[in-house]
Amino acid sequence: MQITLTARYTKREDKLLFLNELSRQLYNLKNFVTLLWEAKGIDASKYGQLSQKLAIAGRMCGKWLQLFKKEAPATRTG
């Protein structure tokens, strides 16, 4: 996802916007993959693999957001 690279190299003050967008895109992709599986567009094995990878990416994004939100107030006050 291009937005991941954009978020990584964006100025700190603009990073939260990109991280939130990345989170939304991952959520939408997860739902799309679930719909695809329910419509029998992919088999259970592929669905399991994709779901697992999306879950990992979602956790990574969530940790990145938590870290940024935790650090952001300190950088704005000082």
Layout of SSEs?
Blueprint: H1 2-8, H2 12-38, H3 44-77
Helix pairs in contact: 1-2, 2-3
Would you mind describing this structure in some detail?
By secondary structure, this protein is mainly α. The protein contains three helices and no strands. Helix 1 packs antiparallel against helix 2 and helix 2 (12-38) packs antiparallel against helix 3 (44-77). The chain starts with a helix and ends with a helix.
Structure described in brief:
The chain is built from three helices and no strands. It is an all-alpha fold and 78 residues long.
Mean pLDDT: 86
- DSSP helical segment count: 3
Please trace the helix and strand order, writing H or E for each element.
Answer: HHH
Shape field: elongated
Briefly note the structural class of the backbone: mainly alpha
- Provide the helix percentage: over 70%
Which key terms come to mind for this protein?
78 residues; mainly alpha; 3 helices
